[in-house]
Amino acid sequence: MQSWRRRKSLWLALSASWLLLVLLGGFSLLRLALPPRPQPGASQGWPRWLDAELLQSFSQPRELPEDTASPPQAPHGGSCNWEACFDTSKCRGDGLKVFVYPAVGPISETHRRILASIEGSRFHTFSPAGACLLLLLSLDAQTGECSSMPLQWNRGRNHLVLRLYPAACPRTFQLGQAMVAEASPTVDSFRPGFDVALPFLPEAHPLRGGAPGQLRQHSPQPGVALLALEEERGGWRTADTGSSACPWDGRCEQDPGPGQTQHQETLPNATFCLISGHRPEAASRFLQALQVLAALQEMSPARVLALRQQTQFLWDAYFSSVEKVIHTTLEVIQDRIFGTSAHPSLLWNSPPGALLALSTFSTSPQDFPFYHLQQGSRPEGRFSALIWVAPPGQPPLKLIQAVAGSQHCAQILVLWSNERPLPSRWPETAVPLTVIDGHRKVSDRFYPYSTIRTDAILSLDARSSLSTSEVDFAFLVWQSFPERMVGFLTLSHFWDEAHGGWGYTAERTNEFSMVLTTAAFYHRYYHTLFTHSLPKALRTLADEAPTCVDVLMNFIVAAVTKLPPIKVPYGKQRQEAAPLAPGGPGPRSKPQAPAPDCINQLAAAFGHMPLLSSCLRLDPVLFKDPVSVQRKKYRSLEKP
Amino acid sequence: MSCASVPGGGLRHPLRCRKPWDEECEEEAVCVIMCASVKYNIRGPALIPRMKTKHRIYYITLFSIVLLGLIATGMFQFWPHSIESSNDWNVEKRSVRDVPVVRLPADSPIPERGDLSCRMHTCFDVYRCGFNPKNKIKVYIYALKKYVDDFGVSVSNTISREYNELLMAISDSDYYTDDINRACLFVPSIDVLNQNTLRIKETAQALAQLSRWDRGSNHLLFNMLPGGPPDYNTALDVPRDRALLAGGGFSTWTYRQGYDVSIPVYSPLSAEVDLPEKGPGASVVVPEEKMSDVYSILQSIPQRQIEEMQRQARWFWEAYFQSIKAIALATLQIINDRIYPYAAISYEEWNDPPVVKWGSVSNPLFLPLIPPQSQGFTAIVLTYDRVESLFRVITEVSKVPSLSKLLVVWNNQNKNPPEDSLWPKIRVPLKVVRTAENKLSNRFFPYDEIETEAVLAIDDDIIMLTSDELQFGYEVWREFPDRLVGYPGRLHLWDHEMNKWKYESEWTNEVSMVLTGAAFYHKYFNYLYTYKMPGDIKNWVDAHMNCEDIAMNFLVANVTGKAVIKVTPRKKFKCPECTAIDGLSLDQTHMVERSECINKFASVFGTMPLKVVEHRADPVLYKDDFPEKLKSFPNIGSL
């Protein structure tokens, strides 16, 4: 018994230790030897096949298509795409040239003004042979006049049929290869990448300028309804965050209830608004809206903020007037023609928008004054001084010395614009000095000379007088605001009740809205805008009334930036003498009140008053502070 | 997990492991061992002595056999791998070749040909995707089956290596669900990557009999090779009705804009190609009729643009096209963006390589807009217990014309605010908010009571600012609504000796911060400060009871890329009972602490966002020789 028990316990101990050995040692050995592999037969997810290693590739190398493109296919029944139906060979040279078919027979006032607007734009050409795009306006449904097949139709190749109002004529001829830009096209007839979809424009849509967006503040006001919902008969309903959102399975038991909604005729003040493209029953739309509401509640304040601003930007940049809609259409087509040198998306999608950021100037955002922050770049630290020498034509020696003394000055350009012969000798300066012989026209001053090698231009009149400190400080300020004009002397505009028009004054006031271009820093891009984007009529206006050019430049920059210019301090004594006041030679004691009609003509041409007023001046940080002048960097600015 | 489970239960555990190095997996394996040994220890020695001797041998033997069997089974679970590695195909449990066979009758239904008019809103049932808090579509993958015709001849090859990889990528992604009822997108396990390997009619029949086919709505097919050489068709010829097609080699004729997804033709070879540093050239679209001009077109592209495109192309490749997995996930992301457009990633996020983003900002208040004066501003006074000084501040601030509301943040939990009757009577609503904790961050909380965009943060001891100065500050803010507009300015400097940042409050020609003891800013920054402050800065500020203003300066400068605007000349911000701002700033330890804050914040932000400028804003006619009574803001700078 004893031996049996001993044998048994021995046997037990043996088997136990053997078991343990096998269990622990064996397992760990096994795991060392065999790294764990994907386990087969997982109940969830795609299985890891045991034989995955042996699976064949989906293709043999020879099967892969070579890089040679397949031959172009003929357009399917009436369908067109850009490559097949548009001939870009006619579009060489500088940008899109558009010929507009003249109207046949009597036309409406709108039609006439649209034609005039295109004819005044930089796209227009009078020769159909030289045009890259032939534009056919089709918008006079109300007069009963429908356009007939034009002469150079050529199956519609390189044609754009512009239908601003959907109630257009029946198709009297086949559109064929013509692009169609029309309001609210249907999905069936719209050819993506070829046709252009336009918004539906009301009859009263302004031709140019257009009302700025209604948005007055960046963020939505607290307590404003979250969602406004378009109703069947043009009314609006609002829904609030309090509205319970139905689950997304499409079944909504509860009635929306009148407490959460209210019927309104005009677009209510709401954070979002839901507009249905097609017109299903109102009830289902409301369910949809509630579902959207649930989604909107998820949206972060940052996103709401961004969307809000984006709507305003898009409205202002592309849709607020008929002219903008047409120019946007042409710009879209021009981008297709340009291909590689088209606007990058950043230029389309951030202020001031693609219509005001000309791709003919550059496609690199850093070259423009608007995108430094998005690009993480900085405006360069040098400027070019452009000194305009008008009659009587004294070489501005003192001014050249003062400007050349600035450490930021890269070059000086003298624009000789008077009848006197060019002086043969110019002062010795540390920076290169170039003399340009102008055409005796004021618009010369804003020509994009290729000799200007810096982004910043200091525009000067020979009679201006500035000190080096003033130049240095103003340039540093410009670097902080490269998209604005930074000037020393100002003008302010006002609404003249008595005359029912705009007026402006050079008198010193608590506010200003313009700076004189006879001493101002601005980005060289504005020369390109002035010369290549402005309707020719406005440049002519400036040439005929030279005092108007300051106003015009300020209009351009304000229309682009939607911001006022910046004023920097200017020495007191000289200010009293007002040497920079606009106008030609004449009594200097009293600032000349320039032709008041200029501003009204410009406001009419722009379609609105772009100028904005500012009540501040940027001074050096320690300007006139009660502290030792030794501490001050710009002490000469304070000299009496 | 419980170790008291029956041996069989313990053994099944390893089967559940999905990933090779899954930690859970190892844990379970260890547990199996423990289960076995524990059972041995408890049952063995403890139970056996009590049994009859003649039964002992029987039990012991039985138990040993059980244990041995257990071990053997356990071992067996590991064997297949060694079998597999030696290419032995005896164990076929989960082999691709051993999947359920489905017989397709010759007359089983065939889907319609691809519906060319399909768009997301016509052919895709978005309601299936439901409202999903994560804004992620749920993707189901059908189980792999083998399809044979009436004669038992298989319809297609087994799944290809690439399609298997693709389904694996989807299965491992966040999109995957194994619940067919919750899914909103279905991916058949029928491999149609290469049309040449398919029997077209039968493949279509196989698609049509999928359990949720429903004319192909919400089904996604992947195809790389639509046709064979020499005339590659541009889209899969398999009738697929409404099913979405993610395909390589689409032409504009077959591509259903906004519906199908265009993916690159993946070459099994390219995966191994190491991209040269220069990248695979730039994408320049040249119309065919312009082929003769290609040289001049390419020459006209500036060098800067070329470099940019090369970087872009390389990034595209790596982010979206490099592997089958990247292609699968990019496709799902595209569909996801269409279904949840409001949560879609932006054009820039799709397109901008992170490296290009470096140093750039996207200002949340990017629209140039001068808010109307009529909106006014809300003054927020943070106070603890200096009631007398607080009342003076309230009285002074209430004289500012554009003030529209006054909010007192009562930060003292031990003391109640004064009774209503004791507060100064002012012309605008006055509201007291009591806080739960004495934290400096309370000053920057986005209170619902703030109804204006402009906020004036003001300390309860800033009694020296005149009404003109405050009103002017508000006017300046209107012209710069995305900036901090404040009165006392400060500067950060690089200390070359200590090799770190230093805080400076002396009379300097430069400014990079304004104190929020008196500053205007947009209320959105309150939201950013409270909810989006990076790192532990907020807690750091509350713990140190200091530097909330420096943190705000960092935050605003970082998100807008813009400098502060200091308004009006320097004043002595000192009053008899004041300890804040200048009073404290003079203190040496305070200066050291503030410098520490700058260094700490710069390290959290990973950069120094503060911008140094040399200007401040004054009224247009400030100190000009002009009649004082005609100036809008005559009372500026005088103390």
TrEMBL record, chain A:
Its main location: endoplasmic reticulum. It is a single-pass type II membrane protein. Belongs to the glycosyltransferase 47 family. Residues 383-623 form the Glycosyl transferase domain. Residues 574-594 are annotated as: Disordered. This is Exostosin-like 1. SUPFAM superfamilies: Nucleotide-diphospho-sugar transferases. It is found in: Endoplasmic reticulum membrane. The keyword Endoplasmic reticulum applies. Residues 96-292 form the Exostosin GT47 domain. The gene is EXTL1.
